[in-house]
Design brief:
Two copies of one chain form a homodimer. The first copy, chain A, is an alpha/beta fold and 387 residues long. The first copy, chain A, folds into two domains: 122 residues, Aspartate Aminotransferase, domain 1; 246 residues, Aspartate Aminotransferase, domain 2. Chain A has 15 helices and twelve strands. In chain A, strands 2-8-7-6-5-3-4 form a seven-stranded mixed β-sheet, sandwiched between helices. The longest helix of chain A is centred in the last third of the chain and has 21 residues. The mean pLDDT of chain A is 97. Chains A and B meet through helix 1, helix 2, helix 3, helix 4 and helix 5 of A and helix 1, helix 2, helix 3, helix 4 and helix 5 of B.
Chain lengths: 387, 387
């Protein structure tokens, strides 16, 4: 590519197509900015703006009040002894794995884990032992399966895994396993537990200490109404000294975070949204009620919600034989559903999917949820009349 | 901290104090957003907005045109075979070190390196051999010193270092060493060279291939008019396969980047500013002329610019005995200069510094530079009249 005015014309400012649509993309419902965060983004957009008065490290910046946020508010919010900002939940998971495990160690991971948990373990050069689930339709994880996986690692490698990880909830079915029980089983073997709360912290109340988790990973852009990339790592007990260890040559800089992480506007959006996030998790029961109502309505149209039932989270997975059948017959094939929803200004079900798909009802009000249900019904009727 | 309305009131939207000041903070002059980037930030601010049409990995997103940007525009712009977006220059350096070196290997690093290069090596558990410079006032790095450092590593460890790193320019004095010569010396020993261009790429023309660098690290929020955290890693030759290696279990995901890095508005600000950045590096000679003019004027006031002279970069380090003497006598002590500059709406010299400080003239127009010179003179006159 020659960088001339012709080739460069495709860059510059670009509009975002679906920005005013009703959004049910599980990746996006918890990351929509609050009005305060939108303002913060504009105010702090310039590179390194938060470093106007830097005393040497991100987590000790007093003005803006990043120090109070990281050292006071976040530990209280998440139930951890120490918290740091990361560039996302995956970076939080890698930071934990890289600092507490050695190359060649094993990590036990639930079979529903997000790919980034697996890739983080691969980057840290760890071996992975998967914890089974019971498959379709429940995708249930028996807490005892963690004990079996740990024992397998011990019998094969002669030592316990360095870490266990539980995705809470998983990103496909929105299942919330019995994390407390799993933590307790892991601790029987002295294996610490990392709880990946990318889809929970910031949407629902999460307290790592009450659950018994040693580590927690959080996503700002997924669930804390923040502009990404940004996340949080929370650490309990003695692990604080390991994960937050400082450079021997640069005593104010923490090695695992390369000194500073979210050195930009991203953290100011997280701080801006924080009061609203603290408030919204108090209404989690309403979110669950909405999700259950929505699931019931869709099942009434012939779809099947798999995973925990009744469901306990806004992220849900549906099998949709009715849409799949239509896709087999219509001209536009598997893209018909995406196009029909787009025409109705509904965004978030991946283009090309009809047989099954996931979605999220988080933060979508009852009126919009009803509109989505009506739209699904309308689309089914439209095509069923045709054949 | 109890999270009640009282304690939460310090969070939410927060104003940025010095946002409308003339800014000469070296960290910030190259990271000021273009109008296009400001618009992009607003448009793409929501978490995961760029993933509206994700095909599985950040670098292959077609809409917005991230794929073309990463695979076509950036390699051309930086003179590399492959480029990827990182969360910053430090993350780029860590990615290179972590992927090409093994724990316990040695990396040779210039003695003027940014702390994050050292901390990245510590995170990758590498040993560090420092390359000497000749100290005050030139801080000159003799290219042959790289050969000597490499030979020292060979004689002590029995094998060559895994990597050499050169900071280009360094972040204190703004010196631009003979990178081409250093690359050639490193290659005599088969040692690859990583050029840290956090303060150059996006301000001045940089072509890694012409220099002979195997790797390049770039900072979006420092030098590419981007909202952080964001950077670029550029890779040449066979190292592409190593640094960009894919997950054995998730073949579309690159391990070293945990799948995706800048999964938010940050990359849209980089893309938005890119045409302006391509344009501005064509005017680098004017920036250098401005820096030299400014340096001359300040020396006329009794300050001493150290480092390369005549200077070749906007980042400059000054010794200021005249301000130091004043600070010894006035009531406000070492904060007097900061306060005087603040009153004149000039930001960027660290509060408390008078004896020496660094600053940057990048993107500051001649009128504002003259105003700063006049302000310095006014402050000197004001206090010299007093004693």
């Amino acid at each position: 590519m020659v960088l001339d005015s012709n080739s460069l014309s495709k860059f510059g400012f670009i509009e975002r197509g679906p920005k005013d649509f009703i959004n049910i993309d599980p990746l996006q419902t918890g990351g929509k900015l609050t009005p305060e965060a939108q303002k913060a983004l504009k105010e702090w957009g310039d590179g390194y703006s938060i470093c106007d008065f830097c005393p040497g490290s991100l987590d000790i910046i007093k003005q803006p009040p990043i120090k109070d946020f990281i050292h006071e508010a976040l530990p209280e919010f998440l139930g951890v002894d120490g918290a740091r900002i990361t560039n996302g939940a995956r970076e939080a998971k890698f930071a934990v794995m890289h600092s507490i495990a050695n190359e060649g160690d094993c990590v036990v991971v639930d079979g529903l884990a997000h790919y980034s948990s697996i890739v983080a373990a691969q980057r840290a050069r760890l071996n992975i032992e998967s914890v089974e689930h019971n498959g379709n339709p429940d995708y249930y994880i028996d807490p005892e399966a963690y004990g079996r996986a740990i024992e397998k690692v011990i019998s094969e490698s002669g030592k316990p895994p360095a870490l266990a990880l539980l995705t809470y909830p998983d990103g496909n079915y929105g299942n919330l396993p019995d994390a407390k029980k799993i933590a307790s089983i892991c601790h029987e073997y002295d294996v610490p537990l990392l709880l990946n709360c990318a889809y929970s912290a910031g949407r629902m109340p999460i307290n790592a200490k009450e659950i018994g988790a040693d580590f927690i990973s959080v996503s700002g852009h997924k669930s804390m109404a923040s502009s990404g990339p940004i996340g949080i790592v929370g650490v309990n007990g003695d692990y604080v000294d390991t994960v937050f260890r400082k450079s021997p040559t640069h005593p104010v800089k923490e090695i695992e975070f390369l000194g500073c992480t979210a050195r930009g506007a991203t953290i100011m959006t997280m701080i801006a949204s924080f009061p609203a996030v603290v408030e919204r998790i108090k209404h989690w029961d309403e979110e669950v009620a909405n999700a259950r109502w929505f699931s019931e309505k869709l099942e009434g149209l012939g779809l099947i919600q798999v995973g925990d039932k009744p469901h306990n989270h806004d992220l849900m997975f549906f099998e949709a034989p009715v849409f799949y059948e239509i896709s087999q017959k219509v001209k536009k094939g598997r893209y018909f559903l995406y196009k029909e929803l787009k025409a109705r200004r509904i965004h978030g079900i991946k283009a090309g999917l009809t047989k099954y798909f996931k979605l999220s009802t988080f933060g979508v009000d009852k009126e919009d949820l009803s509109y989505i249900v009506d739209s699904f019904e309308e689309i089914i009727d439209k095509y069923q009349d045709k054949f």
